[in-house]
């Protein structure tokens, strides 16, 4: 791979400094680019991605807002695509973080370089990439090519709680930044001021695209996967062009993959308990408790003038913010 020229670096810095700025939950700067908020590394990466990425027709994109089940979907898609090569007992998932098997655009592919060699040598076909990039900011070549997009969304209440814990517990608070309470954090979430927010715009961009182009975008929900992994796994395999044969179904391959990729299995894989990302983030940070729908049946309706789009307010989090 080739480093970006210092000239390109300078242009990028200048562009970044013209963007609107805000603070995230630990006091780091967020930059608003094309309607969405990013911290510095992903802001630059998304712009490089948009300007440089050339899609292949065989590419698979796994797209999420953070904390929506990206790690899980990485494991599932990797397993579906590579199941002939690696039977489940020999899966690389037993020794490698899903984040090293399916790299993410913002924190891996474009985190340092603009012109990485993404050719077949480094990334055998089909290339599988994860990204949190919103629909409107995707590189045009993704939209023009025949590549597939799998979007995974999650109940925003769970997504917020998961993200809150992830950020507040894993990223040091900037010195002399007065910590936000969870209520203040939630208010900002509702205003869309959080990494890769606004949440609803992120989800709706892909939801609309999945309605217009169902052959290109498969829209999945974390809660549905939790409820019924088998039929969702078959749907996913069909969509990706790797359908399970009747023989495989009879042999229980679908269940084997579900089990291999389950929270309970992956959480206890050595590298996921003790390993780290190159930036020092612990792999274990991606496995918290994976409990869906902690607010279902206990939603307190809108009150106190909180401006929450779906009509709920922050109180719902007090009960179960674990
Ligand atoms: P919680 O914080 O609610 O536990 P992401 O992978 O997008 O960063 O999302 C992380 C969330 O997915 C965390 O949610 C994490 O526990 C959960 N998760 C991780 N691996 C999972 C798996 N294999 N199955 C289900 N949920 C998983």
From TrEMBL:
EC number: 2.8.2.-
GO BP of this protein: sulfation
The keyword NAD belongs to this UniProt entry's keyword annotation: no
Domain Sulfotransferase: 57-291
Alphabetized UniProt keyword annotations: Transferase
This protein's GO CC annotations: cytoplasm
UniProt entry tagged with the keyword Transferase: yes
Record GO terms (molecular function): sulfotransferase activity
Highest taxon in the source lineage: Eukaryota
Family membership noted in the UniProt record: Belongs to the sulfotransferase 1 family.
Name of this chain's protein: Sulfotransferase
């Amino acid at each position: 791979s080739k480093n970006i020229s210092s000239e390109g670096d300078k242009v990028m810095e200048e562009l970044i400094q013209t963007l609107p700025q805000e603070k995230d939950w630990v006091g780091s700067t967020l930059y608003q680019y094309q309607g969405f908020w990013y911290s510095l590394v992903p802001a630059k990466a998304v712009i490089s991605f948009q300007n440089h990425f050339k899609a292949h027709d065989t590419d698979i994109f796994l797209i999420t807002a953070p904390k929506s089940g990206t790690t899980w979907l990485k494991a599932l898609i990797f397993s579906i695509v590579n199941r002939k090569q690696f039977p489940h007992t020999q899966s690389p998932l037993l020794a490698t973080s899903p984040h090293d098997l399916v790299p993410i655009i913002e924190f891996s592919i474009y985190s340092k370089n603009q012109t990485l060699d993404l050719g077949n040598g480094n990334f055998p076909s089909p290339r599988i990439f994860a990204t949190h990039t919103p629909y409107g900011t995707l590189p045009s070549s993704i939209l023009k090519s025949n590549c597939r997009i799998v979007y995974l969304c999650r109940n925003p209440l769970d997504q917020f709680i998961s993200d809150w814990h992830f950020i507040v517990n894993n990223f040091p608070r900037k010195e002399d930044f007065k910590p936000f309470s969870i209520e203040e954090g939630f208010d900002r979430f509702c205003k869309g001021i959080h990494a890769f927010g606004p949440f609803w715009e992120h989800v709706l961009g892909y939801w609309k695209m999945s309605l217009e182009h169902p052959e290109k975008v498969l829209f999945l929900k974390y809660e549905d996967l939790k409820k019924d992994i088998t039929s969702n796994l078959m749907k996913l395999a069909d969509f990706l062009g790797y359908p399970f044969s009747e023989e495989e179904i009879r042999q229980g391959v679908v269940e084997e993959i579900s089990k291999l990729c389950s929270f309970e299995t992956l959480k206890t894989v050595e590298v996921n308990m003790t390993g780290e990302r190159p930036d020092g983030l612990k792999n274990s940070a991606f496995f918290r408790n994976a409990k869906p729908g902690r607010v279902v049946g206990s939603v307190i309706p809108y009150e106190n003038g909180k401006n929450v789009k779906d009509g709920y307010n922050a109180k719902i989090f007090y009960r179960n913010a674990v």
